[in-house]
Write the structure tokens for this entry.
Amino acid sequence: MKPDPHKQVAPSGLSRRGFLTLCAGAGAGAAMPWRSFQAAERQQQVPAHSWSRGEVIPSTCNMCVNRCGIKCHVVDGVLEKIDGDSRNPKTAGGTCAKGQAGIMALYDPDRITHPLIRAGKRGEGKWRRASWEEAFEYTADKIDKIIEKHGPEGLLFSSCTDLTEVFFIKFGKYLGTPNFARHATLCLASRNVGYFATMGGVPDADLVNAKYILMFGANRMESFELPHNRDLITGLQNGARLVVVDPRMTVTASKGEWLPIRPRTDMALTLALMHVLIKEDLYDREFVASVTTGFDELKAHVAPYTPEWAEQETGISARTIVKMAREMAAAAPAVVVYPGRRSSWYTNDAQFRRTLPMLMALLGAFDTRGASFFNAGKVKLGSFDWELEPVEVAPRFDGFDEENFPLAHHEDGGYINLRDNILNGTGKNPVKGWMLYKQNTLASVADSAKTLRMMETMDFICAIDIQPSQTAWMADIILPETLYLERLDPLWTPAGTTKYVGIRQPVVKPQGEAKTLLEILQGLGAALDKRREFETPFADVYNFTMEDYLDAQLKKLPVDRVTLMKDGLWIPPGQGLKLGEYRNGNKQFKTPSGKIEFVSERFRRNGYDPLPVYEPVVEEPGRQRLVTGRYAWFTHASNQNNIWLNSLHPENEVWINPDLAKEKKIEDGEYVKVRSPVGEIRIMAYVTPRIRKDTVFITHGFGTNSAGQNTLYGKGGADQALMQDRADTISNNQALHETFVEIVKL
Amino acid sequence: MTHHARKLKPERRDFLKGLGVASAAVAGATTLPGKALATVSGRKPRYGMLIDTRKCVGCHACSVSCRSENNVPMRKHRSWVEYVEKGSFPDVTLNFVPRLCNQCSEPPCVEACRDDATYIREDGIVAIDPDTCSGCKRCVRACPYNARFMNPDTGAADKCDFCIDRLAQGMEPACVASCFNKARIFGDLNDPDSNISRMIAGNTVSVLHPEEETRPNVFYIGLDKAYEDDAPAPESYLRITTQRKQNLRR
């Protein structure tokens, strides 16, 4: 049966129905408070849930970025249950807590289901309901005025990775702005830069057959990346050894051997491991000779990085380091040196990431069973023929370009220097209008007070979202998008060992007046057409349906849209991955030399250290380094307000080592103050031996400023309020673990 | 200190071998998990679950899947997960124990029920008829696994029933289906060829609270690892956390 949110008990103990009554009573004025909008239509009696009724529709999950295959049980137009799709090669039938809670995202009483225009001060929480027509006119008017005054460069487009994101970015491009900011520089940009420079790509990992798996911080058991989390469990069952290097004992670390490293010294460990492999002649001579360049320089470079030296830096004993190197060499080539995913840790992250494929190459642990490998790529989808006239585009306002960041992916932008440029006015064209799609910047970027100051400088902020996120709450207008369960999206095909094409399709009708992103952009485009002259009117550029788009994608494939909608996925014949092509020289790496480069030519050319040089860590006595990470039931800062997921973990805590707690006389479960140079929060202490004494951990997504998030509001503390704004110097990936905080007993 | 975690003495294979012998007399029914009550030979299945804690990562997919499938009211739990944290830095262990009704063959709840509202089905599942239940809570108190609760929507006692409705459709219970690490195996304990029977025969398994002599049909691999040394020295540390409540013991 459809879960009745009104029956769900709010964490405060007040029932949801009671809460609604209160809100409705208080909100009689023109500017009504949040809750009074939501409502009565959702109260309905539903029959008892039974699988004997209704239909099962296959689709693709969107509760995180993995896009697992799901089967949705719909009865009388109500989504009653989500199961995993066992035919999906990535997920093999499993789902996670988040995937299960998609139903609660759909029927979330806090969901925005019609356009809202701000009726009070920004962030005050006073909104008025608007028709879509008014919303489009209002937004188009603001955009028009900004372009009139500042040119299209006065607009910033921010979005998060999704299948529909392309429509949003095309819209910005067609308006003529060069200013985009995407998810990558909040996440994995430094890893990508390090790996691409060294070996021309980020490899996949054969975790099922590996004998030794070394992970730095990667937390596959809580931060899922399918099928790696499942494969890792299988690998462990097959007898693999798992060593997890992390100042905090994650669930992943608990499944293997935990090496609680002193934070920011990871590179000392990788350099010392390479030192031992070379010194003891344990490296794979044949692989090094045939597939790599720069070995002699590497040998000289790592000579001073002895295990004894590394012990001083990392806190991991020299004996352990030597033992690790020997054990890895013994297991080679069935060794996985795992690349990791979110690498927004430190300001030297791209250089550190480079040492991982270097270590991998010394072990010859590539392109063979049980090792890293480049997977078979994706199914080649047809591309949709956009009738887009080329628009002349000004340079980015923030200097995130070829000249300043030659190796970075410039279209991804980078919030840290972007925000500084807006605030300091150093950019050529100050950004005055901000279009947000599914992006919660206020919760995702370090130093949220600074983000708020940036928002104050904006003339107009428009958020396209499904919920009143922290950022949407500060916007001038919120345009409600459909949830993934209500819409047809562009097809997707993952890179993996089994190629397939997956479809995301509507399983229920949209709640309220929510529109798809494409419909929103079409409406907004038409309103803009009335105000400005474009070479081709938006009405023509966006003159297509999602079905047209899918048909174009499927043009050259032997499967049609209707079949795909029925089956949920299409697995092409002729799968199979051939290993050994790189080892035998048939395939070249996408690096300047065509080989794995110990000495990076790309880094050298662009003025970076061509071999990773260790920077000693500077710590602040009496303070702890703040690190962040995930629990298995939350994604980024997106679903902490989901009633089912929130009930698993109503508020976040600061993890404190018992020795530190003793010194500070802090008891487990007690509220403490955490103070950094840029912010201060109140948060519950979780005293646990699963973390080093010099480190504290706070998970992400709490401490919301949005009173529209009724389940979450008032709970926990915001890590990003404490974090200082640092970024990796090469990739411009933000560096979230560079802040020292003080724990203060209240 | 949680009642259910104390003094757990996992019994090893011997216990199960005994069980296997005892059940051999009724063995032979071949069923796919959930191919429900109509068995090929006419013999009745006895449903059970095996949870491999080595594969469990405490992700709560089961917890939420169960809530969704059975519309479990907020703050009530048919399915929950214990996080068991032990040791002192850096020698710490973290283990997970997914919990549910143990579907006992000798269920104290059935004995405690005066209304005959809770009963053992022919397939071994302990079920509740909410319409017959008077809401006296005796069964809630009687359960040594703390698996029962009063459902505020129905006013009746409630707990896991292995997703009877899904079984009727030939589907696995929701928690089993959602577990992407396949840490849960569901099947017919009366069928020696079923996956669950073979896994139980081939591994060291244990049950919760064997001293209660309830003969649970929910078995665990690796439970000893989670709960071993459950007699901590004064300075050592044990914390058992669930989404139901937190308990800390030093």
